[in-house]
Write a structure and sequence with these properties.
Belongs to the THEM4/THEM5 thioesterase family. Helix content is 20%, strand content 28%. It is of the alpha+beta class. The structure holds ligand 3IX. Ligand 3IX binds next to helix 1, helix 2, strand 3 and strand 6.
Length: 194
Amino acid sequence: MSGRNTALTPPADATAPVRHPDAPAPGELLGAHYEHCFGCGEDQPHGLHLESRAGEGVRVTAEFTVKTAHQGAPGLAHGGVLATALDETLGSLNWLLRVIAVTGRLETDYLRPVPVGTVLYLEAEVTAVAGRKIYSTAVGRIGGPEGPVAVRADALFIEVKVDHFIENGRPEEIRAAMAEPDQVRRARAFEVNP
Ligand SMILES: CCCCC/C=C\C/C=C\C/C=C\C/C=C\CCCC(=O)SCCNC(=O)CCNC(=O)[C@H](O)C(C)(C)COP(=O)(O)OP(=O)(O)OC[C@H]1O[C@@H](n2cnc3c(N)ncnc32)[C@H](O)[C@@H]1OP(=O)(O)O
């Protein structure tokens, strides 16, 4: 094995990301894109209830509190749960670009154990865009927003059309989401994974 996968290195013709003019203002909470989302959904009892906030440029911050339900080893967060928190934070960057995109690749480094009860302070930014490919990176700190880095990730998101969700999602949930009377909530439900 020889280090990072080259699929996460932007190609030579990649460009700097551009914050959409209608992106939420820095400091604004982004809210859940779908109430049943495992990462951010407020009506998802098993979820992480991660809250992301717009930053400057194409950056976001988020906080995730590690609960007893998130354990892998006794008293420590499960690595897959931490990967989910990183994925969700990285996914919320798409809101600032105003594109719909799904995770194609997510590469995670675990640098320090994360005990139950910890608040993980996450920051993510888009580093480059090449056609449908969105390159991004994230860190998760413990002890405070300036604390030591416990986890980090690099990711490649791929832009998709809303049809991606309608064609691939289970009909029951698609119908329920389409029936949502609030237009904004209905649109946001299809921003990420079914
Ligand atoms: C209607 C509303 C409008 C408003 C929208 C506004 C804002 C949206 C904002 C906010 C979102 C908010 C919050 C998000 C929160 C959470 C995030 C969680 C995200 C997830 O948890 S999401 C679930 C897991 N995710 C999947 O469920 C994907 C399954 N997968 C597929 O559905 C396909 O696999 C797909 C679509 C990815 C690609 O398929 P495809 O046929 O469309 O495209 P294709 O294969 O041609 O790839 C095109 C180029 O990407 C390269 N590429 C592709 N995959 C790669 C990989 N893995 N590694 C390296 N490179 C890869 C190719 O090499 C090619 O590169 P090149 O063009 O250079 O050749």
